């Protein structure tokens, strides 16, 4: 077990990527404080942790409110006495052309995705600094580095998370705290399910994603475990992209067609199917 007896705070742990990370950490021996606004989904996560014999705490808090983030730290120390790992996974996304984004929407996205991460770095970072030890993993997005239409506020917030990851790494190294980020592409969760399941988009994924499918939460957990474990002790300030190759290539439909034709000529059927397993 790579995280035996470690205490991890995971925000956004009531669903999607955050829940998958919480469960994966528990399977590696960690105790998890599952954070989100709605208590119900967090309690479901903690019940799943209990099924595998792991300790957990469901804690309702809004990461965009600094006083709430302080309460997360207090509750964690009260219950488990320490905090070793922080995963900033809570996030929101709204699709809207920049010219139509209203102030409340902009505030919600930036307050949650960027200020929420800042508050947690400050509040949890202070505690970790006292102990001279800690692992912080921010869940960013490829939108932080690549321009995407209809996501201006989201991309801005995630670009901020990337910058904050590097800046915090520069400051926290002296306290033996590693700060890294994971930038997923499209991962099938409630945030993107409609997008991922739309047949038109499925065809686009086949075309645009070199590995031929959208991501699944299990695709993200390996990096999250690695960045929380001793295996990454000499790594800080990096952003691991997990997107099936999307942001590293530019492809045209005609080029993809030529590649398919080549595979046919060679008698090698391409495995470009969103349902296909990564195994
Ligand atoms: N799915 C993707 O394709 C994708 C791609 C790149 C990056 N990401 C990032 O991955 C992270 C997780 O997203 P997901 O795909 O797993 O979506 P998700 O299932 O919608 O999870 C988001 C979680 O964040 C929590 N949350 C939202 N606002 C919060 C707040 N103010 N305070 C506390 N918790 C809050 C939500 O719970 P409550 O509503 O109960 O608070 C929810 O459990 C996000 O940061 C997202 O930007 C996702």
Q: What would you say this structure looks like, in words?
A:
The protein is α/β, with parallel strands linked by helices. It has one domain: 3-Layer(aba) Sandwich (Rossmann fold). 47% of the residues lie in helices and 14% in strands. The chain is built from 9 helices and 7 strands. A 7-stranded parallel sheet has the order 3-2-1-4-5-6-7, with helices on both faces. Helix 1 packs parallel to helix 2, helix 1 packs across helix 8 and helix 4 runs parallel beside helix 5 (152-172). It is globular and about 65 Å long. The two termini are 23 Å apart. NADP nicotinamide-adenine-dinucleotide phosphate binds at residues 11-12, 14-18, 36-38, 41, 62-64, 89-93, 112, 139, 141, 184, 186-187, 189-192. NADP nicotinamide-adenine-dinucleotide phosphate (NAP) is lined by residues 11-12, 14-18, 36-38, 41, 62-64, 89-93, 112, 139, 141, 184, 186-187, 189-192.
Bound molecules: NADP nicotinamide-adenine-dinucleotide phosphate
Distance between the termini: 23 Å
Q: At the third CATH level, what is the topology name?
A: Rossmann fold
| Uncertain parts | none
Q: What's the helix count?
A: 9
Classify the beta-strand content into a percent band.
5-15%
Q: CATH class, anyone?
A: Alpha Beta
The total domain count is 1
Structural class, please? alpha/beta
Largest beta sheet, briefly? 7 strands, parallel
Secondary structure: number of strands: 7
Tell me, rounded to a whole number, the average pLDDT. 94
Strand order of the largest sheet: 3-2-1-4-5-6-7
């Amino acid at each position: 077990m790579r995280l035996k007896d470690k205490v991890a705070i995971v925000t956004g742990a009531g669903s999607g990527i955050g829940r998958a990370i919480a469960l994966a950490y528990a399977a590696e021996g960690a105790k998890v404080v599952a954070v989100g606004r709605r208590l119900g989904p967090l309690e479901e996560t903690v019940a799943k942790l209990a099924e595998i014999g792991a300790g957990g705490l469901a804690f309702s808090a809004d990461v965009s409110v600094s006083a709430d983030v302080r309460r997360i730290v207090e509750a964690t120390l009260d219950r488990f006495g320490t905090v070793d790992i922080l995963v900033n996974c809570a996030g929101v996304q709204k699709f809207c052309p920049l010219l139509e984004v209203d102030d409340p929407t902009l505030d919600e996205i930036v307050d949650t995705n960027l200020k929420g991460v800042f508050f947690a770095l400050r509040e949890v970072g202070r505690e970790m600094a006292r102990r001279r030890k800690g692992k912080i993993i921010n869940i960013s997005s490829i939108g932080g580095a690549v321009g995407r239409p209809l996501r201006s506020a989201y991309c801005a917030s995630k670009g901020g998370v990337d910058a904050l990851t590097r800046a915090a790494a520069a400051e926290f190294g002296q306290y033996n705290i590693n700060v890294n980020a994971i930038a997923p592409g499209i991962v099938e969760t409630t945030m993107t399910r409609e997008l991922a399941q739309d047949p038109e988009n499925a065809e686009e994924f086949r075309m645009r994603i070199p590995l031929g499918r959208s991501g699944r939460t299990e695709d993200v957990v390996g990096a999250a475990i690695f960045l929380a474990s001793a295996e990454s002790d000499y790594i800080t300030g990096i952003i691991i992209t997990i997107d099936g190759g999307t942001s590293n290539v530019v492809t045209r439909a005609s080029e993809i067609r030529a590649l398919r034709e080549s595979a046919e000529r060679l008698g090698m059927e391409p495995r470009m199917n969103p349902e296909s397993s990564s195994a």
